[in-house]
Amino acid sequence: MPTNYEDRNYWHQRFASETSFEWLASSEQFLELFALYLRPLPKTAKILHLGSGTSDLHNHLRDCGFSNVTNVDYEPLALERGQELERKRFGDVKTTYIVNDATKMDLPDKYRVFIDKSTSDAIACGGHQAVSLLAEAIRRHIEDDGLWLSLSFSPSRYEGVKTLFDVELVSKLPTPKLNPYEPDIYYYAYALRPKP
Ligand SMILES: C[S@@+](CC[C@H](N)C(=O)[O-])C[C@H]1O[C@@H](n2cnc3c(N)ncnc32)[C@H](O)[C@@H]1O
């Protein structure tokens, strides 16, 4: 990733024309990777989709019956795109949309589940402290029995947050190859649980 992926202006310019894009994996793939964690949850569980961008993950969560989903992004255009995608799919808007910087999150609620599909990767471009700030912000807003479900391209994304979270590598998602001689490259699915 180029280093300006942490820069809000980059995303503002990008979302001026981008209406729909999925980083690393489709929403279906993401939900399948984490099905064992999501299926047992009550449908009223409070879910915060962090750095929602122009992903349609909130629509898929709504399709699964989750009724308490919040999309957060620091770029207002991302939330506009999310609302457009939801209205196009369902004809109305039930997801909550909040502009907030994930590294300084200041929200009135706590959440059972944080979902991050490559958002920590973008935030990590802001330097070594950035992912720690993200983890501290999530720790302040996560319920005691909460989960942070993350898909990242980095095998060591959460090495620095183990004082705050137990980090479990759920699975490795092989990336598509253009020819069989290419090396195996994976994306990493993590489940993080807050330490008491
Ligand atoms: C790599 S994209 C991932 C988008 C989406 N999750 C997906 O899978 O397609 C990163 C997203 O995180 C947002 N983002 C980056 N840094 C952020 C921050 N500090 N706070 C909130 N959102 C941020 C960007 O605006 C962008 O929408």
Automatic annotation (TrEMBL):
Gene Ontology biological process terms from the UniProt entry:
methylation
> Which InterPro entries does this entry report, sorted A to Z?
Lys/N-term_MeTrsfase_sf, Methyltransf_11, SAM-dependent_MTases_sf
Keyword Hydrolase set for record? no
Q: Name the domain of life this protein comes from.
A: Eukaryota
The answer to whether keyword Protein biosynthesis applies is no
Alphabetically sorted, this entry's keywords are: Methyltransferase, Transferase
For the Methyltransferase type domain, which residue ranges apply? 48-110
Q: Which GO MF terms does the UniProt record name?
A: S-adenosylmethionine-dependent methyltransferase activity
Q: Which family does it belong to?
A: Belongs to the methyltransferase superfamily.
User: PANTHER family, alphabetically?
Assistant: SAM-DEPENDENT METHYLTRANSFERASE SUPERFAMILY PROTEIN
- The protein's name is Methyltransferase type 11 domain-containing protein
- Source species taxonomy: Eukaryota, Fungi, Dikarya, Ascomycota, Pezizomycotina
